[in-house]
Amino acid sequence: MRAKADNFLILVVDDEPDILNLLEYNLRKAGYRVSLAKDGPEAIALAKSKRPSLVLLDIMLPDMDGTEVLRRLKAMEATASIPVIMLTAKGEEIDKVVGFELGAEDYITKPFSPRELLLRVRAVLKRADGPVENDEGRKTFNDLSIDGARHRVTVKGGEVALSSTEFKLLAELIRANGRVLSRDVLLDRAWGQDCFVTPRTVDTHVRRLRVKLKSAGGYIETIRGAGYRFASPPLGG
Predict the structure, then answer these.
(1) Are residues 75 and 143 in the same domain?
(2) Are residues 105 and 156 in the same domain?
């Protein structure tokens, strides 16, 4: 059953009052609950205390820029799994890559239409709230264990904080049972058909996933020109 909009709390972070007012108005009109922050420290404090369903985060903030806020959110266990959409006037490809490398789910460049924003918000929340289409129960590969029913991954007994997209990406690679999955296939399965990101985004998420998995990162094998596969035993193992 699809969750109602008012089940979701959106934290909006921007230092421009006009932008805050515009976003709050459109999100509340769409049925979402909204919390506002004007700078990085306030955003981090609210994310820790309120645990929002999603964060809309501007990059150009005073004192602490949005990339640093994102870095800190993803470094804390309490907030690491909260999806983040970056909102900024910057449109350079390198800025998008940095955002995705740090764990952002999506990236919207100003100026934007409220309709586009709401479509992207719905798409990210759908991924985060939707079920993982993976075998329920635990699968273990030496030091790596993934529990689809509990949405839990551990490496050497320690839990790894993954975003919903990272978890689905890992689950789909494992589910393929050694078959190579192209970037387009992974986008469709892990992001969904209504995603707005490009196939190259898969690469940045795979790199981040490998880093998070540490010693188990070698299970994810790059097949040049084709895509990725889950290799068991892991590369180098």
Answers:
(1) no
(2) no
Backbone angles phi, psi at 143, to 5 degrees: -85, -10
In a domain, 215, yes or no: yes
What confidence tens digit (pLDDT) does each residue in 164-174 have?
A: 788 889 999 99
178 in the same domain as 160:
yes
* Assigned token pair, 36: 């506002």
Spatial CB neighbours of 142, under 8 Å, sequence gap ≥ 6: 216, 233, 234, 237
Shared domain check, 143 and 69: no
N-to-C CA span, the chain: 42
Domain membership of residue 220 as a residue range? 138-230
Please check whether residue 114 lies inside any domain of the structure: yes
Nearest CA-CA partner of 105 in 172, 170, 24, 202: 202
Cα–Cα nearest to 22, from 86, 118, 91: 118
Q: Looking at the structure, do residues 113 and 152 belong to the same domain, yes or no? A: no
Handedness of CA 87, 89, 91, 95 (dihedral sign): negative
For residues 87 and 106, give the distance between their C-alpha atoms in angstroms, rounded to a whole number: 9
What would the DSSP string read from start to end of 20-33?
Answer: HHHHHHHHHHTT-E
pTM value is 0.68
153 contacts 146 by C-beta, under 8 angstroms? yes
Q: Could you report the per-residue pLDDT of 78-107, keeping only the tens digit for each? A: 898 899 999 887 766 667 777 888 888 888
**What is the arithmetic mean of pLDDT over 34-46?**
97
* Nearest Cα to Cα of residue 163 among 225, 227, 100, 119: 100
Q: Which of 190, 185, 195 shows the shortest CA–CA distance to 169?
A: 190
Residue 138 Cα to chain centre, angstroms:
23
